[in-house]
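Suppose you are handed a protein chain with no further information: no name, no annotation, nothing but its sequence. What can you learn? This example shows the usual starting point.
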Amino acid sequence: MSTWSTNLTFSPLALSSQDPLPALALSKLDDWGMVTLIGADSKAYLQGQLTCDLVSLEASKSTLAAHCDAKGKMRTVMRIFHIDNGYGYLQRQTVMATQIPELKKYAVFSKTDINQSTDVVLGLSGEQAQSAIDNYFTGSDDVRHNDIATAVKVDNLRWFIITPIEHAETVAQHFAANATLTDTALWNLYDIKAALPRVEAATELEFIPQAMNLQSVNGISFKKGCYTGQETVARAKYRGINKRAMYIVSGESTQCPQAGDALERSVGENWRKGGTVITGYQFNDQQALALVVLPNDLDDDAQFRFASQPDAIWEKHPLPYALDDDA
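A reasonable first move is to predict its three-dimensional structure. Written in structure tokens, the prediction is:
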């Protein structure tokens, strides 16, 4: 394990459900990692594997995408971008050991080298994040590079920062001068509020992309050619067979909801399994938030609970985007 951060303390941030988020925070994202594809055939190969249209991805932009199996079930959700005359993508560490071998399976016929990077992944968040990035990286693109780091924009409040281990402390110290240092939980909270999909080992190969709203965050192209799982993804759009969506829910909890946890929903006077947790966040006042895949035809006032805490009733909240298939 790298010891690059021994001179910095990335601590859990104590937040109540009513507290404002830090104006600038630097999170150590050990549970994220990067994979690189370098070689002349990388674009063509990935185009046949991912849900996004990589051909139209500009060097100044990143995009979400899913890598699916032949049945259209997601192995991962990634954020992909141009780097080092090839591509890099960020995904959860828990799926690395299974997703990378599957991506490599047919790459032997293509000129592309696929490798898990040892680079450190950091997250910069808050209302001052944009200005902090502008002061450290030149240009105005959503993907920026300098001699020792790459920055990838997530939204108006967040950037990923990727840097080799030997430069990680230098980069972190620069932002630490004006930022709150914290662990990955704050990043999870932002992902929940933004309703951004992710796949963990506990949810790998469980859902098609539309069940996590990937079409609503520009992660699916319905105009590109074939890719692994494309038939199922297209059928879900054009035949309306998808019956699930990902929602934000909140309630009282004595523990943080974990990926794969089952959420029950009320059906008359009874309770039955309603959905699967994608990720969660717990505040220090016993309130919690979670992203959960649920049936997409539930009433707005539907109630939910975890079987382990049957007296704590959870509720569904509006999403920050429309659920549509117009990509």
